[in-house]
Specification:
Elements lengths: L1 E2 L4 E4 L6 E8 L2 E4 L10 E2 L5 H7 L5 H10 L13 H6 L19 E8 L4 E7 L5 E6 L5 H16 L5 E4 L6 H6 L4 E4 L9 H21 L6 H12 L12 H6 L14 E4 L16 E6 L6 E5 L4 E5 L2 E4 L18 H7 L1 H9 L26 E2 L21 H10 L12 E5 L34 H5 L11 H4 L3 H16 L3 E4 L7 E2 L1 E9 L5 E10 L20 H13 L3 E7 L13 E2 L14 E4 L9 H15 L3 E2 L6 E6 L2 E8 L2 E6 L2 H14 L2 E6 L2 E2 L2 E5 L4 E4 L1 H10 L29 H14 L7 H8 L7 H16 L3 E5 L7 E8 L10 E8 L2 E9 L7 H25 L9 E4 L2 H8 L16 H7 L4 E4 L16 H10 L2 E3 L4
Parallel strand pairs: 6-9, 9-10, 19-23, 34-37, 37-38
Antiparallel strand pairs: 1-2, 2-3, 3-4, 5-16, 6-7, 7-8, 11-12, 11-15, 12-13, 13-14, 14-17, 18-24, 20-21, 22-28, 22-29, 23-24, 25-26, 26-27, 27-28, 30-31, 31-32, 32-33, 33-39, 34-35, 35-36
Protein name: Gag/pol
InterPro entries: DNA/RNA_pol_sf (IPR043502), GAG-pre-integrase_dom (IPR025724), Integrase_cat-core (IPR001584), RNaseH-like_sf (IPR012337), RNaseH_sf (IPR036397), RVT_2 (IPR013103), SH3_retrovirus (IPR057670)
GO molecular function, one term: nucleic acid binding
Length: about 1000
C-alpha cells in the first residue's frame, strides 16, 4: 500500500497491478467497491409468494422462502396460503433415515430406477453429488441398455468425467449393463429393499408429487403426463435444497445460477406469436394455447393448441397465469383427473402422440442454458436481454424433394443445435407428439424415427374417425394373463366358449399324473378380433400348450407342415378371375383340434378351469391342441385325408394345392393352415364341396374372397386388386412413421449398400422385425422387392445407413399405401418372363443380383430379386445365371398349369437384354469362357433346344426386371412400376 497526498493505492506485490484506489473523505479514505455489471432493465409488477409457489411447480414452502430471500425475487408478501393441490399430491408416509454415503465429484455415483406409471415406463438417472436428474421414457424395459449407453457417452463427454458406480435395484433390465460395461461398478440393492437406493426412490417420489400437484392444480389431462414429468424434472434441477449451505443441482453441475425469471405456471393460458404461419394478414397473430413445458434443445416454451393438438415452440409468448384452460367445466368435473375422461375428451391428442412419437435423445437432456429471457408475460417482468437472442432457424416454405433425401435426412438427424437468427421469427411448430427434447419425448421406441420436413415443421396427422384409425393400430388393450382377463366379463365368456369347444371335440381326458412322464404346461392367449372398419367382431380366447417344453422323440417326432406358396395363390386367382369362376373363402374354427395325435402327450389342466373333483389330474391329449409342435402337421394330415376322400389329389409341385376334375369341371382348393380358398368352374360343385366340409369340420363360409392372409381383395372394372393397405398402415404405426414425409421411390438412384457403411445400429432386433414385415409386404408389392432384398442382406449386423434405407422404404409405402397388385382378365394364357442382372453390384463381395418377372397373360404372378451365390467373371455369365433361375421358375409354373389343365398356346418366352447370354442359352456349343459355370445352369440350353422355352433379346429400356436389380430415377421407376402391375386402388 502506498500513500500519496490526494489518494492511496493498493497494489499487488508480485505483478504491481493496482487493486484498489481510495480518495480522502472527512479524514478517512473512501474505497469504492461497486462491481461492474452488465446493465439490464426490468419492467414488471410484484406478485405474491403463492404465484412463485405455482411457477416453480409446487415445491415446499421452505424452498420458496429460500428462493425469495436469497434470489431477491419480486414478491409482495411472504405469507403462503394452504395449497390444496399440494395436499392432494404430497400426502405420504414418514421418510426413511438419510443415507450416510457421500460423493465428492459429479458422476462418482449415479442412481437409476425404472418406473411404470400405468401408461409407459420411464427411467431416471440421478447424479449423487449434484442430485441432477435425467429422465427418459420407454415402451419396454428392454430399452434401458440402449438409453444408458447413449446417456453415459454424452454425459461423460460433457462433464469430462466418467461414471464410476451405478446403483440400481435387482431388475433384469439392468443386467445387460454389467455385461456391456465390465469396468463399471454396478451396485445392486438387496431384494425388496428400496431404502438402499434411497436417492433414486426419493427423487422418483419428488417427481411424481410435483407432477401430480401441477396436474391437479391445472386439471391437465393424464395423456399429457410425460410433458408434465419432463417439465417438473426441468424445475427440480433448478430447485435448491432447504439447507442454506447448498445450491441447486443445476448450479452445482454447471457452475452458474439458473435464470428463474423465465419460469411460468404450468397449464396456464398462453399466446405464442404465430404470424409467420398465417395464410393472409387478416388472420390472428396468435392463438389461445396451454403452456405445457419448456423446450430443452430450443430456447423457448412449449404451447399446446388444444383444438388441433399442435404444439408451438416459441420464444415470443404472452402468459396469463390466472387462467387455466383445462379447468373448464366442460373438460373436468372436478380437480381430480380421470383416465376415462381424459382418454375420451382428448382422443385427437392421444392419437397423434401414439402415431408419431419422438425418439429419446440423450443430448437434449443436457441443458445449455435456460429459455431465453425475452419471452413476454402479462403478469411478470419483461426482461430486455443484454446479449444476442438465439433461436431456431426460421422455417422455409419450400417442401423437400425426393432427390438426395437420404443425405438430407442424415443432416436433419445430426443438426439439432440452435442457431442465432436476428431477422427471422424464432418459432417452430411441431405436432403434439413430436418434441425436440428427450424429456418431452412421447416415444415408445428408442430408434431415431423422425418425420422429415425441410421447413422443420411437423404437421398434425388428422383422422376423420377415431375408431377407424384404431383399426390400423395394434390393440394394446388385450389382457396378457389369465388374472387380468378373469376380471372382465366378455373375456370370461370367451374362455368358457373355448373350453366348451375343447370338450365338444373330445380334446382330452383327465387321468392321474403319470410317473416319470413329461407334462406340458398351458396358458391363455387373448385377442380382440376386429372388422375391416375397426369395430369389434368378437373377443377370442385361445388355450395353447407350452410346446417349447416338449422333448423331441418323447412327446413329438415330425413337425413339418406345408403352406401354399404365394405364387400359387396369384396363379390360381389369375386363372379363376379370367375364367369368371366363383371364388369362396373358408375359415376352420379351432382347426388344430381336428388333428389326431399319434404321440402320448400330457398337459396340465387349464388355468381357471381345474376340475374340482380331480384337481391333481392332468389332461391326456387326444387331439392336437394349439401350441404343440406337431399340431400343424396333424391338422394338415386330417384335412388332406378328407379332401383325398372327396376325389381331390394333392399337387406334386405344391402340397397345399388340391385339384379335382369331374365331368369337365375343375375344383381347386388352396390351404394355408386354417384359411382356405375354394374356386372352380362349377359354382354348384363349389357349393357342394363347402357343404360337405361343413359336415366334417366346424367351418365358417366367409363368402366371396375379400380378405386372405392380411391381403384385401378388391373387385373393380379394371380387375382384381390385391392390397396389403391395412398391414402397411399397421407397420407404419408400429415404427412411428405414420407422419413421415413420403418419397417417390423406395431406394435412391445408384444406392450401393455395404456392410461397412455407418455405425452399428443400436437395435438389431427392431431392424430384423421391420425388414421381415417388409418381406411379407412384397407378396403384393413387387416394386419394393429389390430394396427389401438388399436390406435383408444385413440382418446379422445392421448399421445406421441400413436403417436409413429401411426408413426410406417405409416412407415410400407411406406415399403409396393405396397401391396393390392388379390382376386383369385375359383371353388366351401366354407365359413370358423378363430376366436381368446387375454385374458385380455388391461392393463387399462383387457378387451380382439375379431378378426375374413372370407373367401369365398381362398378370404378374411370380418375381424374384436374389443375390447370386458365386462371383461371375463377366456380365454375360451373370445374365446367364439369371436366365437359368427364371427358367427353373417358369418350368415349375408350367407343371402347375398342366395339373390345372390350362394349356399354353406357345412355349414360354424369356426376355433378356444381354446378347451374349441370349446366344449362350441358344447355342449348345462348348465355350472356354463358360466351362467353370455349374452344370445345372446349362439345363436352360436343353429346354431351348427342345423348344420348351424360347430366349429372346430385348432392349434395356424395355427390360421390366431392371427395377428389381437397382435403384432408379423417379420417371423410370414409375414407368416400370406400372408394368409390374402395381396400381392405386380406385377411390370410391
Amino acid at each position: 500500500m502506498g500513500a500519496l497526498t490526494n489518494f492511496i493505492l493498493v497494489m499487488d506485490c508480485h505483478t504491481s497491478k493496482i487493486l484498489l484506489q481510495a480518495k480522502p473523505c472527512n479524514g478517512l479514505y473512501l474505497i469504492n467497491t461497486t462491481a461492474h455489471c452488465v446493465p439490464q432493465a426490468f419492467l414488471g409488477e410484484r406478485v405474491d409468494a403463492d404465484i412463485w409457489h405455482l411457477r416453480f411447480g409446487h415445491p415446499s414452502f421452505a424452498t420458496i422462502r429460500k428462493l425469495i430471500t436469497d434470489c431477491s425475487l419480486p414478491c409482495n408478501k411472504l405469507n403462503l396460503n394452504v395449497c390444496t393441490a399440494c395436499n392432494l399430491a404430497k400426502s405420504h408416509k414418514l421418510p426413511f433415515m438419510l443415507s450416510t454415503s457421500v460423493s465428492h465429484a459429479p458422476l462418482e455415483l449415479v442412481h437409476a430406477v425404472v418406473t411404470s406409471n400405468g401408461f409407459r415406463y420411464y427411467v431416471t438417472f440421478i447424479d449423487d453429488f449434484t442430485k441432477f436428474v435425467w429422465i427418459f421414457f420407454l415402451q419396454s424395459k428392454d430399452e434401458v441398455l440402449q438409453i444408458f449407453t447413449s446417456f453415459k457417452l454424452q454425459v461423460e463427454n460433457l462433464l469430462s468425467n466418467t461414471i464410476k458406480v451405478l446403483r440400481t435395484d435387482g431388475g433384469t433390465e439392468f443386467k445387460p449393463i454389467t455385461k456391456r460395461f465390465p469396468q463399471l461398478v454396478h451396485q445392486i440393492t438387496c431384494p425388496y429393499t428400496p431404502e438402499h437406493n434411497g436417492v433414486a426412490e426419493r427423487k422418483h417420489r419428488h417427481i411424481v408429487e410435483l407432477s401430480l400437484a401441477a396436474i391437479s392444480h391445472a386439471s391437465i389431462p393424464l395423456v399429457m403426463w410425460d410433458e408434465i414429468f419432463s417439465s417438473i424434472v426441468y424445475l427440480i434441477n433448478r430447485l435448491p435444497p432447504v439447507s442454506p449451505s447448498t445450491c441447486s443441482p443445476y448450479e452445482l453441475l454447471f457452475q452458474r445460477i439458473p435464470d428463474y425469471l423465465t419460469l411460468r405456471v404450468l397449464g396456464c393460458q398462453c399466446f405464442p406469436f404465430i404470424r409467420p404461419y398465417n395464410q393472409h394478414k387478416l388472420q390472428p397473430r396468435s392463438l389461445a394455447c396451454v403452456f405445457i413445458g419448456y423446450a430443452m434443445s430450443q430456447k423457448g416454451y412449449r404451447c399446446l393448441h388444444v383444438s388441433t393438438g399442435r404444439v408451438f415452440v416459441s420464444r415470443h409468448v404472452v402468459f396469463n397465469e390466472q387462467i387455466f384452460p383445462f379447468q373448464s367445466e366442460s373438460l373436468q368435473s372436478n380437480s381430480e383427473p380421470s383416465v376415462a375422461q381424459t382418454t375420451e375428451l382428448w382422443a385427437p391428442i392421444l392419437l397423434q402422440r401414439a402415431s408419431s412419437p419422438s425418439p429419446p435423445s440423450v443430448s437434449s437432456q443436457i441443458p445449455s442454458g435456460p429459455p431465453v429471457s425475452s419471452a413476454q408475460s402479462a403478469s411478470t417482468p419483461n426482461i430486455i436481454a443484454s446479449r444476442p437472442v438465439t433461436s431456431v432457424a426460421a422455417p422455409s416454405s419450400q417442401r423437400s424433394s425426393d432427390s438426395n433425401s437420404a443425405a438430407r435426412e442424415s443432416d436433419r438427424l445430426i443438426s439439432t443445435s440452435v442457431t442465432p437468427v436476428h431477422s427471422s421469427p424464432a418459432i417452430s411448430v411441431i405436432s403434439s407428439s413430436s418434441s425436440t427434447s428427450s424429456t418431452t419425448s412421447h416415444s415408445s421406441s428408442s430408434h431415431p424415427m423422425i418425420a422429415r420436413s425441410k421447413d422443420h415443421t411437423k404437421k398434425t396427422k388428422k383422422f376423420p374417425d377415431f375408431v377407424a384409425y384404431l383399426a390400423t393400430t395394434p390393440d394394446h388393450s388385450d389382457p396378457t394373463t389369465f388374472l387380468q382377463a378373469n376380471k372382465v366379463a366378455h373375456w370370461q365368456e370367451a374362455m368358457a366358449k373355448e373350453i366348451q369347444a375343447l370338450h365338444h371335440n373330445n380334446t382330452w381326458t383327465l387321468v392321474s399324473p403319470p410317473v416319470n412322464q413329461h407334462v406340458v404346461g398351458c396358458k391363455w392367449i387373448f385377442k380382440t378380433k376386429r372388422h375391416a372398419d375397426g369395430t369389434v367382431e368378437r373377443y377370442k380366447a385361445r388355450l395353447v400348450a407350452k410346446g417349447f417344453t416338449q422333448e423331441e422323440g418323447v412327446d413329438y417326432f415330425d413337425t413339418f407342415s406345408p403352406v401354399v406358396r404365394p405364387t400359387t395363390i396369384r396363379l390360381v386367382l389369375s386363372i379363376a378371375f379370367s375364367k369368371q369362376w366363383v371364388i369362396r373363402q373358408l375359415d376352420i374354427n379351432n382347426a388344430f383340434l381336428h388333428g389326431e395325435l399319434h404321440e402320448t402327450v400330457y398337459m396340465q389342466q387349464p388355468p381357471g378351469f381345474v376340475d374340482a373333483s380331480n384337481p391333481s389330474h392332468v389332461c391326456l391329449l387326444k387331439k392336437a391342441i394349439y401350441g404343440l409342435k406337431q399340431s400343424p402337421r396333424a391338422w394338415f394330415h386330417t384335412l388332406s385325408s378328407a379332401l383325398l376322400e372327396l376325389g381331390f389329389h394333392g399337387s406334386k409341385f405344391d402340397p397345399s394345392l388340391f385339384i379335382a376334375h369331374h365331368n369337365n369341371h375343375t375344383t381347386i382348393v388352396l390351404v394355408y393352415v386354417d384359411d382356405i380358398i375354394v374356386t372352380g368352374s362349377s359354382s354348384s360343385g363349389v357349393a357342394t364341396l363347402i357343404a360337405t366340409l361343413q359336415n366334417r369340420f366346424a367351418l365358417k363360409d366367409l363368402g366371396p374372397l375379400h380378405f386372405f392372409l392380411g391381403i384385401a381383395v378388391h373387385h373393380n372394372k379394371a380387375g382384381m386388386l390385391l392390397s396389403q393397405k391395412k398391414y402397411i398402415l399397421d407397420l407404419l404405426c408400429r415404427t412411428h412413421m405414420a407422419n413421415a414425409q413420403p418419397v417417390s421411390t423406395p431406394m435412391a438412384v445408384n444406392m450401393s449398400l455395404s456392410k461397412y457403411d455407418g455405425e452399428p445400429f443400436h437395435d438389431p432386433k427392431l431392424y430384423r422385425a421391420v425388414v421381415g414385415a417388409l418381406q411379407y409386404i412384397t407378396i403384393t408389392r413387387p416394386d419394393i422387392t429389390f430394396p427389401v432384398n438388399k436390406c435383408s442382406q444385413f440382418m446379422h449386423s445392421p448399421t445406421s445407413v441400413h436403417w436409413t434405407s429401411v426408413k426410406r422404404i417405409l416412407r415410400y409405402l407411406k406415399g403409396s399405401v393405396d397401391h396393390g397388385l392388379l390382376l386383369k382378365p385375359y383371353d388366351s394364357p401366354l407365359l413370358h418372363a423378363y430376366t436381368d442382372s446387375d454385374w458385380a453390384g455388391c461392393p463387399d463381395d462383387r457378387r451380382s443380383t439375379s431378378a426375374f418377372c413372370i407373367y401369365l397373360g398381362p398378370n404378374l404372378i411370380s418375381w424374384s430379386s436374389k443375390k447370386q451365390p458365386t462371383v461371375p467373371k463377366s456380365s454375360t455369365e451373370a445374365e446367364y445365371r439369371s436366365l437359368a433361375l427364371a427358367g427353373a421358375e417358369i418350368i415349375w409354373v408350367q407343371y402347375i398349369l398342366q395339373e390345372l389343365r390350362v394349356p399354353l398356346e406357345q412355349p414360354p418366352v424369356l426376355w433378356c437384354d444381354n446378347i451374349g447370354a441370349t446366344y449362350l442359352a441358344s447355342n449348345p456349343m462348348f465355350h472356354a469362357r463358360t466351362k467353370h459355370v455349374e452344370i445345372d445352369f446349362h439345363f436352360i440350353r436343353e429346354r431351348v433346344v427342345n423348344k420348351q422355352l424360347m430366349v429372346k433379346f430385348i432392349s434395356s429400356k424395355d427390360q421390366i426386371a431392371d427395377g428389381l436389380t437397382k435403384g432408379l430415377t423417379v420417371n423410370r421407376f414409375l414407368d416400370i412400376r406400372d408394368k409390374l402391375m402395381v396400381y392405386c386402388e380406385p377411390s370410391t
